[in-house]
Amino acid sequence: MADSEPTWTHWAVLIGVGVSIDTISLSQGDQQSRPRDRSLKGAVPDIAAVNDYLGSQSKVKITKLTATKPSDEDTISAPIEAPGNLPTLDNVCSVLQDVIEEGMRGQSKHVYIHFSGHGTRIGSEGPFALVLYHDSARGARYLRSTELANALDLMTKNGMHVTLVLDCCFSGGVVRTDELRGSDIRFIEYDPVVDAESNAGNRFGREPRDNTRDSVLKLDRLLDPKGYTIITACGPNETSSEIEFQNGARRGALSYFLDYSLRSLRKGGARITHQSLYQYLQARFHARYPQQTPMRYGSTDISFFQGLMDGPGIPFVAVFRNAKDGRLILSAGQAHGVHEKDEYDAYSYFASEDPKHIPNQKSIKMQVQTVENLTSDLVVVDPADAKRIASGPTWKAKPLTSFSPRKIPMRLMPSLPDLDREQLLRDAQSHSFLQLSAEERETESSLFNVILNTENDYEVQDGALNKIPSLPTIPRDSYQALNTLTTRLGHLATFKFFESMENQEPDPAFEGSFLLQAEGSVGQDGWLELKHQSSWKLTVKNLSESLIYLVIFNFRPSWEVCNVVWEAEGGDFLQIPPRHHPDSEIELALSMEVPDFVQAADQQQCEDIMKIFVTSKSTSFPGIILPKLRDGSMRSNPDQLSNFLGTFIRGFCETRSDGHQGKWATQNFLIRTSM
């Protein structure tokens, strides 16, 4: 009889190393020194909690490898698990190989790997490694990032969607004293003897990655997460620690907050995006452990967990409470287009983000009181909601009404029926940056005009009443035609609003702290001319003593706005080190193309706008991202940038309220690409 097909579609590999020793003194030749017990009390409870959460899901296969220290032992001793259930290098690699082979058979499509234990780094800037248990004098073996990346690559090539959670740290730079080398810090100093004993060659049937390349990378590029998602407990130069509860129990901070978040989602039956989950983790760490910032890399279009939505979703903005004075802080400011008196609808962080459910969610109206460069202060509009807003430390908000004086003017032409114009004027109020006018006589210039053409189609024209080829018309008798038109006008308004954004109060000192220089000469009309499939190159140089952050947006002819760095799966932005660092000067390259839909319209050129935001603190711009308004291939190819990111140092950390306003500047580069 044929074997029955497996009933699972998801495979979770849970690894908790609770028995560890520090052997660096032995490697340094100190024969009188004894290994130090560095066992983690929270590592195995982390795995138990994840196992409990996933165990109730019928489609999930769970493989658990743990090393638990006997509770009655105060000295270094063997774990209580049987050898086949221990997180040894052989056992872990065997399980990963089983997952790869199952992917080749097309059985499980989703993989979740959760590691809770110690990390280490080979050298100050070398590859990192997970510290696994081994029954020997040194008590450990290393699973290098190069080997782990090979395994994950094979899984994704087999069509598997992989999520990797690393509740450990890989920076020893701040773990240099006995006070900081406590048992709650999830880092162990590198032991070259353990590393040599761990090297077994090619475990996953492919050539290992170039270690020389890895030697100059930080955490986000050590795994080069193309096609999978990574969440780590802290930034590349931070340490991760354990939470100690009143009863003496311990948990890894990332594991604990992630478990709490997922259980809250399940309890409420809500669905949110990866971005909102990540923002919630950031907010919780900000409130409880500001020295530790969870990081996210790679793809966010896939999910192992129930309750998480694929894709970008609605661009909510995080709201958190200032720990010192209790003020409500919106994680957006002048650089994001926020203006005083702007109104937002705030929701509980675990409110559903499914567009079908949002109208039924109970929100709290909030208003911007003070706008700073990268953040803003919020106040509750209705005093009756003050008690409710005080019950939660973190919220999320979406724009409701904008009072910006820079709204994009558009005119409804007389050819539109009166009833249509009335509905459009009403519906336009829900689009923050759109200003519609129905005046018979033009009192001010309009960037766009809307007509009903002779074919009974709604048509958007430019300010000179010329047809815009990249904007298809909308038949008036089509389903939800006016709603479609209003959405399109709001999209165009957002596009032009951010395209034209500049810092109205620039800081000369900050603008002099960096250099942005594009290759090639600009014509008298301000445009740089490039040939189809040639490269646009930008040199960025940090001239200051502090980190700067770079976000690159491409405003495309399909009316799409994308974060170029994120498209290359490199995080939300680049982090440029201070001027004395060897990577304080970098060169970015993008291959520019005339998209297919432009060529199909017998046009020989297209125009791109690359908008660069430079900030003194890390921040995100979810409100700028826009989808295409028509079909068409991308104008720029992110592969070159992705390759560059594979050799560049950068990180991701939260914008922190440290009493100093962040600074920002922006610059546009106009690129005309011709066949």
How would you sum up this structure, described in words?
It comes from Phialocephala subalpina. Residues 39-294 form the Peptidase C14 caspase domain. With 675 residues, the protein is an alpha+beta fold. Helices cover 22% and strands 28% of the residues. The protein has 16 helices and 36 strands. The protein is globular.
**Domains (count):** 4
CATH first level of the largest domain: which class? Answer: Alpha Beta
Order of strands across the biggest sheet? 4-1-5-9-10-14
How many runs of DSSP E, i.e. beta strands? 36
- Helix count equals 16
Helix content: 10-25%
Q: Which characteristics define this entry?
A:
675 residues; alpha+beta; Rossmann fold; Thrombin, subunit H; six-stranded mixed β-sheet; six-stranded antiparallel β-barrel; 16 helices
Summarize the structure.
With about 675 residues, the protein is α+β, with helices and mostly antiparallel strands. It contains 16 helices and 36 strands.
List the helices and strands and how they pair.
Blueprint: E1 10-17, E2 21-22, H1 24-27, E3 36-37, H2 43-55, E4 60-67, H3 89-104, E5 110-116, E6 119-121, E7 128-133, E8 140-144, H4 145-157, E9 161-167, H5 192-198, H6 211-214, H7 219-222, E10 228-232, E11 242-244, E12 250-252, H8 253-268, E13 272-273, H9 274-288, E14 295-298, E15 308-309, E16 317-321, E17 328-330, E18 343-348, E19 364-371, E20 376-380, H10 386-390, E21 394-401, E22 408-412, H11 418-427, E23 434-437, E24 448-452, E25 457-462, E26 474-475, H12 481-499, H13 508-511, E27 514-518, E28 528-531, E29 534-542, E30 548-555, E31 561-563, H14 564-567, E32 574-576, E33 585-592, H15 596-600, E34 605-615, E35 636-637, H16 639-645, E36 664-674
Parallel strand pairs: 1-4, 1-5, 5-9, 9-10, 13-15, 22-23, 22-24, 28-36
Antiparallel strand pairs: 2-3, 6-7, 7-8, 10-14, 11-12, 16-17, 16-21, 17-20, 18-19, 18-21, 19-20, 24-25, 25-26, 27-29, 29-33, 30-31, 30-32, 30-34, 33-35, 34-36
